């Protein structure tokens, strides 16, 4: 048995095109044996011709990777033509697990849920704000109406501090000798993308949620957006490389604004909320506390997670607040007012139901929620379902429940988090070695390819004990944002 488990494939960087401003790396072949990923790193040196513009005058075609049929007593492998080796081999293991809390937020400063919403934390499932049959409110009636937030004074909120602008994060990273720093907003998409690569795009286990027959035939794999290429900025600041999200054109849409204002809506009484509403006679006065951040280290990373809410009765005490607009609005947030008639009316159903919203949540963002909870050492996620005009219900997802859906169980979630961080470290080490002490833009993309298994003994995580994964991994780096 030990001999069988010892068989493992190889991780090969089959082709690298190095240009003055652009690098393209093709990684094919990834395998996992027990708790480790072993691989062989091959790099072709400087294969581009500069045409004076900083871009290649011609682009080489990446070679086809042909699988070899291994003897039953030999390991399975994939061969490339050509297959140069420069000796830069490495091994990645989930252990030792190096996560360590550096700074915890003082609980007395963390907001609490108000208006009786805290009881959602201790009761599983979806909680409708109003019973559709009897029209009786299960929570305070004023929670249904979001119209007061139209007068919300966003200037009263603390300004979001990007990871590259956070001097405390950089100073802490330097103090502990960390090479990289990141926030949950800048690193979770990268980790989620790498997990999909490692796990051969293992889908979430939707059977755990017990969806009704109304959703039979609906896809269970991750959405196209969840699997789309990921862009990040790697900013060199004071001796530390800091990961930043690249600001998108619609980054200030209605969903972003509602997320900020509804955090106060859920943690304030109606009287307290008045302090955040714009007044015609005068702007709101008084200083509001800044965002609270949990700081932790993991490998070469110093990580920052914003803490939204707290309840001392929970096992890990802190949790995050998530506002989830209806599917119709998420598909077209610019024209959100055209979809205010799309309301959540039932617990089950193909449309206008809570189970449809949760099904879409599992396929789109639940993987990132898991990594966010890991970074911030959080107990779970509190979700508020709405359509920007009214609230329909609430749900609390403990971290253990999310991990069971995404990874299989908590143990494999821990392994997936550790390995994803370590693979990202290896990538960034290679990028910074080639790019130097400069600001860089990184694009990660994974492409799934046919898989041949040489051992059918599988982990619930979706990783085989002995696996040859024919997958293409593309990394592009531009010097300067």
Q: Which of globular, elongated, flat, extended, rod-shaped describes the shape?
A: globular
Number of helices: 10
Estimate the helix proportion, in percent: 10-25%
**What is the oligomer described by this structure?**
single chain
**Percent of residues in beta strands?**
25-35%
Low-confidence stretches: 1-89, 280-286, 450-476
- Based on secondary structure, the structural category is alpha+beta
Main sheet, how many strands, which sense, barrel? 11 strands, mixed
Could you give the order of the helices and strands?
A: HEEEEEEEEHEHEEHHEEEEHHHEEHHEEE
- End-to-end Cα distance, whole Å, is 50 Å
Q: How many β-strand runs?
A: 20
| Mean pLDDT over all positions | 76
Radius of gyration: 24 Å
Task: Describe this protein with a few key phrases.
single chain; 481 residues; alpha+beta; 11-stranded mixed β-sheet; 5-stranded mixed β-sheet; 10 helices; 20 strands; disordered N terminus
Kindly describe this structure.
The chain has 481 residues and is an alpha+beta fold. Helix content is 22%, strand content 25%. Strands 1, 2, 7, 9, 10, 11, 12, 13, 18, 19 and 20 form an eleven-stranded mixed β-sheet that branches. Strands 8-17-16-15-14 form a five-stranded mixed β-sheet. Strand 10 and strand 11 form a beta hairpin.
